[in-house]
Cohesin domain-containing protein
Amino acid sequence: MARMEIVIRYDPSTLAHPRVDRAGGIPRLVQSSDTSDSGVVTIKASRNPAFTGSGTVASLHFDRTGPSPGTVDSMDGVIYNDQGVPMSAQVSITNPPPDQSGTGREGDPATAGRGGGGPPRPRFRGRQRSRQPPMKALLRGLK
C-alpha cells in the first residue's frame, strides 16, 4: 500500500461530532481526515515506501444522540500500490453493541465496570476523548 482513501457515511441523526484518531497500527503512515461534512468522514493516508501487511488505520469516535449504537450507512475504501494501481483489500468497521442501559451510553458511567448499569466499558490505552467505544476502520489482507 502506498496510499488510500476511506469514506464513511453515517446517519447524523444517530451519531454526532465525529473524531478521528490515528490508530498507530501501521508505522510511518501519514494520515489526514475530514469531518467537516455532516454525515461523511473521509480518511486519507499514505506511506513511502509502500508496504504489505494489515493493521488498524484509524479509530473513529462519535457521540451518540440516543440509545442506538448509531447507524453507519456505508464505508468505501480504495487502496493503491506504489504505481497508483488499485489493490484488493478488506475494509471493515467494528461497532459497539447496542446500549442496554437506556442512558444513551454503553454502560452507565456511574456503575459501569462495577456490576451494574449495563456492560462494563472496554479499557483503552492512551487518552480517551469519549466514554463511547470507538468504531475502528480496519485494513486486512493487503496484497
Notes: Residues 105-143 have pLDDT under 50 and may be disordered.
